[in-house]
Amino acid sequence: MPKGLSKEEYLAGQLSILRNPIIANIFFRLGLIEQFSTGIQRILAAYADSKTQPQFSIFENSIKIVLPVVKMELQGVSEDANVVYSILQSAPLSSSHISQETFFSKNKVLNLLEELIQKGYVVKIGNGRGTKYRRSK
């Protein structure tokens, strides 16, 4: 912890004291950081609506931050629909693939996908046997 910086100032992101301004400037120019002194504010904003919050332990010579894993649950859909949504992470998937991953019947998967489509969480791509599903952007 830099001298003269209180715990409250640190957590509020009120004050920035660069330990190595040369390295910070290089990271900034390379696009590895967006701006100086925004990390704590961004962490707090990311967890603003979460039941579990990050834990900050501030010592004289170090800072320990524990970031809990947040399980994202969609609002207004069933628990099973949340399971289906969690499987749709990267590439579009067929209902058969989702059925294999979840061990739900294909009819149940199709009903859950329809629920997610109605709420705007999932997009249907194509028709017939080649139909795939992906998360909406």
UniProtKB/TrEMBL annotation:
Cited Pfam families: HATPase_c_4
InterPro entries documented for this protein: RecG_C_sf, WH-like_DNA-bd_sf, WH_DNA-bd_sf
Any coiled-coil regions, as ranges: none
Membrane-traversing stretches: none
PANTHER family: GLPR-RELATED TRANSCRIPTIONAL REPRESSOR, SCHLAFEN ALBA-2 DOMAIN-CONTAINING PROTEIN
Protein known as: ATP-dependent DNA helicase RecG C-terminal domain-containing protein
Species the sequence originates in: Lactobacillus amylovorus subsp. animalium
